Amino acid sequence: MTKGYSGNRIAVILPCHNEAPAIGNVISAFRAALPEASIHVFDNASTDDTAHVAGAAGARVVHVAERGKGNVVRRMFADVEADIYLMADGDGTYDASSARAMIDRVIAEGLDMVVGRRITDGANKEYRPGHKMGNRLLTGAVALIFGSGFTDMLSGYRALSRRFVKSFPALSKGFETETELTIHALTLRAPYGEVDTTYGARADGTQSKLSTWTDGIRILKTILKLYILERPREFFLSLAGIGALVSLGLGMPVIFEFLDTGLVPRFPTAVLAAATMLGALLSATCAVVLDGVVTGRRETKRLVYLGIPAPGPKP
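Now predict its structure.
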């Protein structure tokens, strides 16, 4: 891998599963757009000739046995050494001619991630209305919890800096990896941007691996999980507040009745109110303890991130 792009080593990384009809043209397109880059195809347990076609086209092929895009991304980020990474799918839907604009923004503005924001002419059946609606809803949920900035959170076309890639924990297993990348950028407060790019039709002979409902639910679960992991104070204090209100709603009539008559005729309600308040106090305690843990983990990630040079022109 030569330093041919403003002194930076560029790596095109392509996760693939059964993309034999498309991968040869995808490799050719990225080689034409980025002749300075090395091209890596990570074959995720394909049952067709994806690996053979990719190798014949001149890409470096790595086999990943554990199924799932998140597993492939984890392996790509660990194995490939570069200054800037360009990640795209191997199905031919992403426009290789946008690659230079994305990488130029990384270098010129010192960004850690530039997302290819998908633009269609309305005739592309691959970007179905259900996918668009789900993308808007999930992107909006992330913006509400972690902060706004991205408009196409689920795009798989991204230019990434080395310091972002090597500080990314890569915990997810499947298509929720794009959500994890987005939330990592927002929690790390890394500089990012978007570039409009044409989203084309999938190559003939290939099939989408994305399930609208199944993967949408998995992405939503990932957002919730990362909300608990990254914002435990907000989450557990919210639970504590709800628990305290429920406890007071149940317990106040019992207390007033006791003060008025000296009796507790609704003893089970009194026990439930007390137990609910104890749960609320435990939740508040968890909020304080876990906030300290997350702060320490966030500081560690930040130090790892800062230990790697920022993107930019190199001599």
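Strands lie at 10-16, 38-44, 60-64, 84-87, 113-119, 158-161, 192-198.
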